[in-house]
Design brief:
This protein has about 425 residues and is an alpha/beta fold. It contains 12 helices and 15 strands. The protein has 2 domains: about 160 residues, no CATH class; about 250 residues, 3-Layer(aba) Sandwich (Rossmann fold), CATH 3.40.50. The strands form 3 sheets. Strands 5, 6, 9, 10, 11, 12, 13, 14 and 15 form a 9-stranded mixed beta sheet that branches. A 4-stranded mixed beta sheet has the order 1-4-3-2. The chain is globular and about 75 Å long.
Length: about 425
């Protein structure tokens, strides 16, 4: 059959990576979903998959049912067939099998990905269960692309040697995301003996991790693999280690995708327990490239208490939900100021922004990191505060965040 393209669970494109031996025509992306007025239910997703012709069709249908019966909905505990989430299962004479997958609003976004993994030879239309009840028809399949169509982006793959892949994100710049990333990586490495941590600086436009970690030399290349630098027990790789300090990254999406892929796959990270990725602000090419390159275990959203930061961070969190990445929790940075002389706590900004964001997302508030004198100076000189001043309020708050992150990752289903 011909490959089918579709939209992701919440609207982003998720198309499968073609095998190198696949000679079929590339697939064009569907246009973006149009925004409809509030109150109108929209299809959640169309999960694109390839099908190799199999005969007879009833045998293929039996295989599909058997595969789907192994996929459990963690919310109900039943498999997706027993729960009635699979509708209109049909097998055509040419070996094509299609069905509609009803995904409720309270169901995890990763369930659509689990269906795709279980049934790798079927086109699955994933729609909102409420829209099905209202009689909304699933979105039609995309037409066959003609010559010269843009090839589909890759699907994320499991890279077990990287350990738990954790994306650190924010909706806007200036909230201290890189500071949190660097200190969280060092704190995780210091949690217990033998903890192996990697930190990838994916902030293409403002790569500051090397300065904050105190590394500045060019990485070596051995055996075709880039050797990451190491500082404070953390392996580090950044674009700032490769390009000149004053060279602007005036790059479009395809080049950003290649950089992300190279940093993930062509760097000799070794065996890690945690792999942290410091992402640029916003919801652009770097975020989507990472989500399409490697299976992200979870994302952490960094914000400050102000509503303007909380609103942007909310959009960043929703982006991860749309590509099936769970949000682990929220870190509120610059929560308050601690006087270095008397230790008095002062709320500089409107308090509670991180808590409100966490409540709206239904995730925990992982910690509140205070403003602290000389914190910026330490970062500028390559000394993460958790290593340089472990007894300070900011260091203690960041170490507590690291412990909660470690516990939350361990509790996530694999």
């Amino acid at each position: 059959m011909e490959p089918v393209s579709g939209s992701s669970r919440m609207g982003q494109s998720l198309c499968p990576l073609r095998h190198p031996a696949d000679t079929r025509a590339p697939v064009a992306r569907l246009p973006r979903r149009r925004v409809r007025p509030s109150g109108v239910s929209l299809p959640r997703s169309l999960v694109p998959l390839y099908l190799s012709p199999v005969a007879p069709s009833d045998t293929l249908q039996t295989r599909v049912e058997r595969a789907l019966s192994q996929v459990k909905n963690p919310r109900s505990g039943n498999d997706v067939l027993t729960a009635g989430m699979v509708k209109d299962l049909a097998a055509a004479g040419d070996g094509t099998v299609t069905f509609t997958f009803l995904l409720g609003r309270d169901d995890p976004g990763s369930l659509a990905r689990a269906v795709r993994k279980a049934v790798t030879a079927v086109r699955v239309n994933v729609t909102d269960a409420s829209s099905s009840a209202e009689g909304t028809a699933p979105r039609p399949s995309a037409p066959r692309p003609g010559p010269g169509a843009v090839p589909p982006p890759p699907t994320p793959v499991e890279l077990p040697h990287l350990g738990a892949v954790l994306a650190i994100s924010s909706g806007k710049g200036g909230v201290g995301k890189s500071t949190v990333s660097a200190n969280l990586a060092v704190a995780l490495a210091r949690l217990g003996a033998g903890q192996r941590v990697g930190l990838m600086d994916a902030d293409i436009y403002g790569p500051n991790i090397p300065r904050m970690m105190g590394v500045d030399q060019k990485p070596e290349v051995r055996g075709g693999k880039i050797q990451p630098l190491e500082a404070h027990g953390v392996k580090v790789m950044s674009l700032a280690l490769i390009v000149e300090r004053d060279a602007p990254a005036i790059w479009r999406g395809p080049i950003i995708m290649k950089v992300i892929q190279q940093f993930v796959k062509d760097v000799d990270w070794g065996e890690l327990d945690y792999f942290l990725v410091d992402l640029p602000p916003g919801t652009g090419d770097a975020q989507l490239s990472l989500a399409q390159t490697v299976h992200i275990r979870a994302a952490i959203i960094v914000t400050t208490p102000q509503e303007v930061a909380v609103g942007d961070s909310l959009r960043g969190a929703k982006m991860f939900e749309r590509v099936g990445v769970p949000v682990l929790g929220v870190v509120e940075n610059m929560s308050y100021f601690v006087c270095p002389h008397c230790g008095e706590r002062t709320e500089i900004f409107l308090a509670g922004g991180g808590s409100r964001l966490a409540d709206e997302l239904g995730v925990p508030l992982l910690g509140q990191v205070p403003l602290q004198a000389q914190l910026a100076d330490l970062a500028d000189t390559g000394q993460p505060v958790v290593a340089a001043d472990p007894g300070s309020p900011a260091a203690q708050a960041l170490e507590a965040v690291a412990r909660r992150v470690s516990d939350a990752l361990a509790a996530l289903p694999r």
